[in-house]
# Entry
Amino acid sequence: MFDFSVITQNWPLFWNGLLVTLLYSALSIAAGLVIGLVIGLIQLTGSRTLALLGRVYVEIFRNIPLLVILLWIYYAFPIFAGLSVTKFWAGFAGLSLYAGAFYAEILRAGVQSIDKGQSDASTALGMTYGQRMRRIILPQAFRRMIPPLAGQSIIQIKNTTLMSMITVPDLLYQASYVSSFTYRPMEVYTMVGFMFLVLLVPLTLLSRKLEKVSERMK
Amino acid sequence: MTHVSNTSAPLLKIEALRLTFGQRDVLKGVDLTVNKGEVVVLIGASGSGKTSLLRCINLLNMPSHGRITIDGEAIYEADTKARDGNDVPAKTVNRIRSRTGMVFQQFNLFPHMTALENVMEGPITVKKADKEATRKEALDLLAQMGLQEHVGKYPRQLSGGQQQRVAIARACAMHPQVMLFDEPTSALDPELVGEVMKAMVDLARSGMTMVIVTHELGFAFEVADRVIFLDEGTIAEDGPPNEILLRPTHPRLKSFVGRFHETADLLRPFLESS
# Structure
């Protein structure tokens, strides 16, 4: 009943789709981490204005569905701004801005989870705010943040499939295309699911392992 | 106990200190002078403000009114216009703060650093001290605390008593003029209290100025030059330990000290039978 020859015959399309998925995953995770670091840290400086700004950013991008963000940036934003936005930039920006909100929350929660006594002890030694963060708080917080960061990054890789809705030729987009002319959705989408499993199961196992390591370091 | 003549040099001076948390007045105008080399023990019921007072000295708690000077230089002067309520700039605060060393109830060692790195952290980061010299001194301090075999261990590998001794060494590494202790033995298993107290007695004998919040009245009796009883945010009694602990006059101090005697009486049969 399965006929996987449609996969082998159209393998170059799947392969290209996979490369696009990997490229957008890597780029948007990297950019998302930078955004998350900035948005997370400005919420911890003690300035109310900056904290509010960070909060507003996080709430906007965390509470609008990613698909809506992507469609808005690609179709609505160009009309508002009078600019043309390419598929590449719309997909990259949407994914990165969205991921940034989640990474920011992980960073903020990680820093705030560090016992108040750590800040007391480093303050009592005469350390400045910057020294406390750099030497005492962040090194401990980063260790705790590894598992949630890994988890969020796995979600991010899966979220790239939403870009197919703005016609970025990722793995899912190519699969839909193959399915449209071979009329074999069963084989095609099974293959897509399988490829994501092969890609992400090792990453999930890795994040579990990191979780154990960070548990031991407490 | 060696009493150096502490008549002259006031090292720590607290004047008209008030602390408010929201609606609650925690400290209601405290005046306290501690001389060089003096060992002062603060006692009082929970909520009396003793820990708050201690944490005000190095500004872990920001007071709402008054003045604090350490060795003649102000670390805190009330100012309603300043953003944090302190007239003294943050840079000066940090500089004067490092003249105080603090030991906490929960030790608060840095868990990502070894015992040795914990002790070296203050001089290296805050004072930009020479690494080799700091290392040598830190090893000496840890050896004085009887921890020479544990210098390379992480806090989680040490007992509570060992952790607290590392914490004392960490504070000493900054060469503070006054050491602040916030219930240093309250979180310890009973059999570990002695080793930490011994370290504190040694420190007191070396002439260190100390302000100690503790429930260990026996320790206060033996080591303190002065015992101060705080009640509802004010100093209710202030005097030598035998006067305060053996002949209390303030009614609440009477019941406070009495409760400890009672507890001891209650426990005696169990202690003797075991």
Notes: The longest helix of chain A spans residues 11-42. Chain A has one domain: 5-217.
